[in-house]
Design goal:
This protein has about 300 residues and is α/β, with parallel strands linked by helices. It is about 40% helix and about 15% strand. Strands 1-2-4-3-5-6-7-8 form an eight-stranded mixed sheet, sandwiched between helices. Helix 4 packs across helix 5 and helix 7 packs across helix 8. It is globular and about 50 Å long.
Amino acid sequence: MKTRRIAAIAFAIALVASVSALWTPDADQATLRAHYLATPRDLRMVEGVSLHVRDTGPRTAPALILLHGFGSSLHTWEPWARELESQYRVIRFDLPGSGLSAPDPTGDYTDTRSMQLLAALMDTLGIQRATVIGNSMGGRIAWTFAARNPERVDKLVLISPDGFASAGFEYGKVAKVPASLSLMRYVLPKALLRMSLEPAYADKRTMTDSLADRYYDLMRAPGARDAMLQRMRQTILTDPVPLLRQIQAPTLLLWGEQDAMIPFSNAADYLKALPHATLAPLPNVGHLPFEETPAAALVPLRRFLRGAL
């Protein structure tokens, strides 16, 4: 009996030690801001939420609003923003609980709340209409916003957008979040995060150390992991076709043919439902073309914005 007790104690000590070694606390907010915040003026209060917003380019130029995907941040658009801001007013922001934006004090991470914040941000910036560009989850928010607020959307650009139900999702039902995924609130090894991100790129060399560091740092922002889990738990997909059919804005679908996150074949579903959509396939590209092949992906985007596509 004594031997068993000693073994049990030794096991408990080893378990505590291993958990302690893997424990991943939140990053220091001041340190994150020092590294990833361009200017304190980029932190704006919108509808009671402190949002990280970058607004560059001529104020009188046509406005582009870029919406990032799940687990990402406004930094994902940096290669495009640098190229576009000479001709356009380029607006990027971190959704609540992402990047340097604070968690939403309401605890509401539904698409309805995201669209409310988007409209409020446009009002704050004095923008009546804009071209809305969204990737993945941001794409779903973008096309839903365009369907429900047609007076505010000039053009729509959807990059590998989410919306049609995939494995693990059913229309009208809350998605089940695996218990193992909930553990990321406490344990988030950088190597494991990097492994989970690599499938987003057809060319794995795109996932550089500096890019992996950025994702890792910002996912450890205070409250970010709780917000991510809440966003997953509050996502309820509905059949997108009725809303997609309402969209009158000219729409560009940009899709990497090697997308391992949301398959390229989904583009056909969007083309059937959207009244004014054009598809620009991107060969040998994954889920994030603006990170993986920003220059090549900009070619069809520029043509579309000029009305030449």
